[in-house]
Structures are given as structure tokens and as C-alpha cells.
Design goal:
about 325 residues, alpha+beta, Alpha-Beta Plaits, five-stranded mixed β-sheet, two-stranded antiparallel sheet, 10 helices, about 60% helix, Diguanylate_Cyclase, membrane, transmembrane helix, diguanylate cyclase activity
């Protein structure tokens, strides 16, 4: 048992670490493969402990098991790298796992071929000292790297919470404004078109007073879903006020944005919000403005907001923009 028990604990530690890492990265766990690898190593240990006591085959079996887990750790971390965040901690764990895996592979090759040998496990040969030193350093380094990955993912979650409006799932005002400033700087640098639409849910206070605040929240969520489904992936839409939203359209001019706004308004008209067993019909008013060279986001937003005010003054349920004649909209479906 003095041989089997420590090696079984090493195998369990490898399984526990690999399981935790895969779950942290949101990856499926290959339980059957892990079980087969551990069972094979355990059978070799039993055979070469009680049937034919030899040290080298036991070293080969456990080194092969560790090699498999280390390469699996490296593959999992490489696959789980974030697309738009710092990858330092992931590369650190990957490097440690790869070095450890290559070291174990070398140990397997040397002991399996007879180049290295040991009469007992802790025999102080040069090869044994080298491999044991590297083995002792591997797990603390992997643990440290994993802690860094956990910290990075916690920061990512907090940043996501701060940049997302909890009710609609759209960008928060702060996140949208920061993105808008970046877009204005990019437009100034590249001279490519940039268009802004500011919109407001019509008669939102009446919805709250008539149906309750829960219904008002349902309308905001409903609009967020429709906006996400209608707009392009690269169109940045955020909730900038109670019932006010704004959308940035990169590489689009106001005439194309007006068509998108009309499609979104038509979708809102045709798809009333379902809440509490009834439907709530609503519309929005919107203002569209093209970015002017050298203009900052505040001035850009104020011009689009003035166009929104024009749409509201013209009777709501419509979109106002450069060179657009405000016509009477089609009648809206009555609320059920």
C-alpha cells in the first residue's frame, strides 16, 4: 500500500484539477477517458508491485498518466482562451502544462528504453533529481495560473454586469457612451460615415399608469429583444434613459439608417408586448443624425435628440431625420 496509495492520490489530484479546470472553462468533461486512463495506470502499478516488482514500469505508467493529463490541460486552456481579453494567465498555464507534459514524455521514453533506471523510486540519480524537481514545481505553478484565470473571469463577469443594462440586456448608458466616443474618434481618423439614432417609447408613463410598472418593464424588455433581432450585430444599441434608447450605426449614412428605423418601428407595431395574459401595443419616436467631421459625441447626441423632439412634435410613432418629410403613420393596433 505504500506504493499504491500515494500513486492513487496523485491520480485523484490530477483528476480533481482537470475536472475543476474544464468546469471553469465551461467545457465538457471526458469522464470515460479519464476513468480508462486511471484504471490502466492502476493495473500496471498493481501488476508490477505484487506480481513482478519492478520500479521502471511503475515510473513509466505514472509518468504516462501525468503526461496525458498535462497535455489535456494545455489543450483545454488553449481552447478556452478569451477572444477580447488578456490571455496572459491562459498562456502561463498552457506553458507550464506543455513543459510538464514534455518532461513526462521524456521520462517515459528514458525509463521505457532503459537509458535511465532506478532500483528504487527515490534513488538520487541525475535523471531522478531532474524529473522530481520539475514535478514538484509543476502543480504549484498550475495552481497559481488557475487562480489568475479565475480572477480574470471574475473581472470579466463584473465588467459585463457594469456594461449591460440588467432589464433589457442591451448596453448600459456608460458602456454605450464610451463606445460612442471610440466610434467618433474612429470616424474622425478614417472619415468613414457614422450615424446616430435616438429613440423614445411613446407614452411610456401612460403604459405604467394603466398597466403597472411590471408591464412597463415588460415593454422595455420586449423592445430590447426586437431591437436585437432587427439590428445588425455591429450596431451598438444601449438604454440611455428610462425609456430612451440610442443606436450607433458605423459605416452607414442616414438614408440607410432611416430604412432600418422604419423596419424596427414596423416590427414594434406588428408585434405587441404580451404581459399578464394581455397584449400591450406601443410605438416609439426616433431622431436620426449624421456625424459631422470634428463633432464630439455630446454635440452629435444633442442633434439626434433634437430630431427625436421633432418626431414627437409631429405626433409621435414616426422617425425624423435629415431631409425626411414627416407623414402621418398608419393606425396602430389597439391594445387587447
Amino acid at each position: 500500500m505504500s506504493i499504491l496509495l500515494p500513486n492513487m492520490l496523485i491520480g485523484l489530484a490530477l483528476c480533481a484539477y482537470y475536472t475543476g479546470l474544464r468546469r471553469l472553462l465551461g467545457q465538457r468533461l471526458p469522464r470515460h477517458l479519464m476513468g480508462l486512463a486511471c484504471a490502466a495506470a492502476w493495473l500496471v502499478l498493481v501488476g508490477y508491485t505484487y506480481l513482478d516488482s519492478q520500479v521502471a514500469p511503475r515510473i513509466v505508467a505514472m509518468s504516462a498518466l501525468q503526461m496525458g493529463f498535462m497535455f489535456a490541460v494545455a489543450a483545454a486552456v488553449w481552447q478556452g482562451r478569451p477572444a477580447n481579453r488578456s490571455r496572459y494567465s491562459y498562456y502561463f498555464v498552457w506553458s507550464v502544462a506543455m513543459i510538464s507534459g514534455v518532461t513526462c514524455a521524456l521520462r517515459v521514453a528514458l525509463f521505457a528504453s532503459g537509458v535511465a533506471h532506478a532500483d528504487f523510486l527515490l534513488q538520487p540519480t541525475a535523471w531522478n533529481i531532474l524529473f522530481m524537481t520539475l514535478g514538484v514545481l509543476a502543480m504549484p505553478c498550475l495552481s497559481l495560473g488557475t487562480i489568475m484565470i479565475i480572477h480574470d473571469r471574475m473581472l470579466a463577469d463584473r465588467e459585463q454586469e457594469a456594461s449591460t443594462d440588467f432589464l433589457t440586456g442591451l448596453m448600459s448608458r456608460k458602456a454605450w457612451w464610451l463606445q460612442g466616443e471610440r466610434y467618433c474618434a474612429q470616424a474622425l481618423r478614417t472619415r468613414r460615415p457614422l450615424t446616430l439614432m435616438v429613440l423614445d417609447i411613446d407614452h411610456f408613463k401612460r403604459i405604467n399608469d394603466t398597466h403597472g410598472h411590471a408591464a412597463g418593464d415588460a415593454v422595455l424588455r420586449h423592445f430590447g429583444l426586437l431591437a436585437t433581432a432587427t439590428l445588425r450585430t455591429g450596431d451598438h444599441v444601449g438604454r440611455v434613459g428610462g425609456e430612451e434608447f440610442s443606436v450607433l450605426f458605423a459605416d452607414m449614412r442616414s438614408d440607410a439608417v432611416m430604412e432600418v428605423a422604419d423596419r424596427l418601428l414596423d416590427s414594434v407595431r406588428r408585434t405587441p408586448c404580451a404581459h399578464g395574459g394581455s397584449t400591450i401595443a406601443y410605438t416609439f419616436s426616433a431622431g436620426v443624425a449624421d456625424w459631422l467631421p470634428g463633432e464630439n459625441l455630446q454635440a452629435f447626441f444633442e442633434r439626434a435628440d433634437r430630431m427625436l423632439y421633432t418626431a414627437k412634435q409631429a405626433g409621435r410613432n414616426r422617425v425624423a431625420g435629415p431631409g425626411v418629410s414627416l407623414v402621418e403613420p398608419p393606425p396602430m393596433q389597439a391594445a387587447a
